[in-house]
C-alpha cells in the first residue's frame, strides 16, 4: 500500500511540473519581440479586426448613411466569401450615427478609437463630418477609408497619409459634369448648397468647364437647410445662362421649384449628377436632361455589380442597390484586400505602403488608390434621363462610360 501511495504522489508531481512547463512555453511562444501578448489588429492568427463606420443614420442624409451601411455589410460578405473573417481573424463592425453634425462625428470617432479600439475608421456621409474627423485618424495612426464624402479638400488641403478614399471627389464629378455640357461659347450658371460639398463642387466644375471654353456667368449658393429656393433661382433666371448646373445632396432638393418656376421653358437647360432613387422620383420635369451618374444599378457591366444587385434584392425585399450602396461595398472590399496583403496586420503605418497604388475590383469596375493622394481613380457615367415603362421615376440611361483616366482629378495635396 505504501509503495502505491508513493507512486501516485510521484505521478501527481510529474503532472504538475509538466503542466507548468506547458503554460510557460505557451505564454512565451505568443509574446512578440517586446514581450507583449499580441492583441486584435496584429499579424498573428486569431483575434478580431474591428472596423468603426461613421454614417448619417438619422437626419437629412439618412438615406445616404443607410445605403453605405448596407453596401459595407455586403462588401465584407463578398470579400470574405461569406466567412466574415480575413487572415484567420474575425471581422467586427461597429456603426455610429454622426447625425450629420461635425461635433457629434468627432465624439463618435473618439469613442470608436478609444473605447472600441477599432483598427479602421470608415465614413462619413457628410464632407463636414469627415473633415472634422480626419485629424483623429492621423493622431491615432489609424487608416480611415472615406466614403461617401466628396469634398476635394479631404484628399487635398486637409489630407494626411492615413486617409484613403473610395468615394469619388468633387473634381471627378466636375470633369464628368463638364464633359456633358461645356464647350466654347456656352454660358453656365451654377447652384449649390453653401458648405464644403457645394463650394468644392462648383469650384471644380468651374475649372473643368472653363477649360473646355464655357463661361460661368453666376455662382449661386443656398443655405444647406433651406427648403425655399425662390430667390436663388430668380437670380439664375436674371443671369440668362444656357445651362444651370446644379450640385446638390440631401432630401431638400430644388427640383420641384425649378419646375414651378418653369426655368427650362425660359430657355435654360438643367444639368446635374443623377441622384439616388428617392431624389430621381422628384425629377420628372428633367426627363431628357443630359448629365452624369456616380452609379445606377444598370450602368456597370461586371461580375461584382451583378453579385451586388442579386444579393441586395435577395436581402432587402427586391430592392435594388442605390447611389451610395456600391461605395460602401467598395470601402469594405478595399479593407479586406489590404488585410489579405498584410496577412491580417492592421497597423496603420504598415498598411499605408500596402494600400498606396493598390487596385481592387468593385461594383464600378477596378479602382486604384493613387499613390500621391490616396484618391481612388474610378469609372463614372455620362447619362441621359429617360422614362421607362413600369418605372415611376426618370431612369439614368448610359451614353458612355467615363474611364478612370478621363475622370482623374488634379492632385491638390
TrEMBL record:
Annotated keywords: Signal
Leucine-binding protein domain mapped to chain residues: 48-386
Signal sequence region: 1-20
Cited Gene3D superfamilies: 3.40.50.2300
InterPro entries, per database record: BCAA_transport, Leu-bd, Peripla_BP_I
Highest taxon of the lineage: Bacteria
Pfam families named among the record's database cross-references: Peripla_BP_6
PANTHER family: LEUCINE-SPECIFIC-BINDING PROTEIN (PTHR30483), PERIPLASMIC BINDING PROTEIN OF ABC TRANSPORTER FOR NATURAL AMINO ACIDS (PTHR30483:SF6)
Family indicated by similarity: Belongs to the leucine-binding protein family.
Descriptive protein name: ABC transporter permease
Organism, scientific name: Paenisporosarcina antarctica
Amino acid at each position: 500500500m505504501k509503495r502505491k501511495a508513493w507512486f501516485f504522489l510521484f505521478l501527481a508531481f510529474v503532472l504538475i511540473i509538466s503542466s507548468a512547463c506547458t503554460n510557460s512555453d505557451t505564454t512565451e511562444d505568443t509574446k512578440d519581440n517586446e514581450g507583449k501578448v499580441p492583441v486584435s489588429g496584429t499579424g498573428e492568427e486569431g483575434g478580431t479586426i474591428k472596423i468603426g463606420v461613421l454614417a448619417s443614420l438619422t437626419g437629412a442624409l439618412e438615406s445616404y448613411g443607410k445605403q453605405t451601411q448596407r453596401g459595407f455589410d455586403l462588401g465584407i460578405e463578398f470579400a470574405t466569401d461569406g466567412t466574415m473573417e480575413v487572415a484567420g481573424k474575425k471581422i467586427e463592425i461597429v456603426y455610429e450615427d454622426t447625425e450629420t453634425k461635425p461635433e457629434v462625428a468627432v465624439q463618435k470617432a473618439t469613442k470608436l478609437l478609444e473605447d472600441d479600439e477599432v483598427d479602421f475608421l470608415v465614413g462619413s456621409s457628410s464632407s463636414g463630418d469627415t473633415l472634422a474627423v480626419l485629424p483623429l485618424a492621423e493622431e491615432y495612426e489609424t487608416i480611415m477609408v472615406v466614403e461617401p464624402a466628396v469634398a476635394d479638400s479631404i484628399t487635398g488641403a486637409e489630407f494626411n497619409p492615413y486617409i484613403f478614399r473610395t468615394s469619388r471627389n468633387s473634381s471627378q464629378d466636375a470633369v464628368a459634369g463638364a464633359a456633358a455640357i461645356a464647350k466654347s461659347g456656352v454660358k453656365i450658371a451654377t447652384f449649390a448648397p453653401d458648405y464644403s460639398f457645394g463650394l468644392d463642387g462648383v469650384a471644380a466644375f468651374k475649372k473643368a468647364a472653363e477649360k473646355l471654353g464655357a463661361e460661368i456667368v453666376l455662382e449661386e449658393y443656398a443655405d444647406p437647410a433651406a427648403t425655399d429656393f425662390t430667390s436663388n433661382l430668380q437670380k439664375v433666371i436674371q443671369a440668362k445662362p444656357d445651362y444651370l448646373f446644379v450640385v446638390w445632396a440631401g432630401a431638400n432638393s430644388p427640383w420641384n421649384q425649378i419646375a414651378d418656376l418653369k426655368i427650362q421653358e425660359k430657355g435654360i437647360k438643367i444639368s446635374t449628377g443623377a441622384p439616388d432613387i428617392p431624389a430621381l422620383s422628384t425629377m420628372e420635369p428633367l426627363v431628357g436632361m443630359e448629365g452624369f451618374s456616380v452609379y445606377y444599378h444598370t450602368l456597370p457591366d461586371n461580375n461584382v455589380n451583378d453579385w451586388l444587385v442579386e444579393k441586395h434584392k435577395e436581402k432587402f425585399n427586391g430592392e435594388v442597390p442605390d447611389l451610395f450602396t456600391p461605395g460602401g461595398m467598395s470601402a469594405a472590399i478595399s479593407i479586406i484586400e489590404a488585410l489579405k496583403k498584410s496577412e491580417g496586420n492592421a497597423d496603420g503605418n504598415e498598411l499605408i505602403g500596402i494600400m498606396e497604388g493598390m487596385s481592387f475590383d468593385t461594383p464600378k469596375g477596378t479602382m486604384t488608390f493613387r499613390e500621391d493622394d490616396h484618391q481612388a481613380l474610378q469609372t463614372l457615367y455620362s447619362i441621359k434621363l429617360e422614362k421607362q415603362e413600369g418605372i415611376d421615376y426618370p431612369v439614368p440611361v448610359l451614353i458612355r462610360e467615363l474611364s478612370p483616366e478621363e475622370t482623374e482629378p488634379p492632385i491638390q495635396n
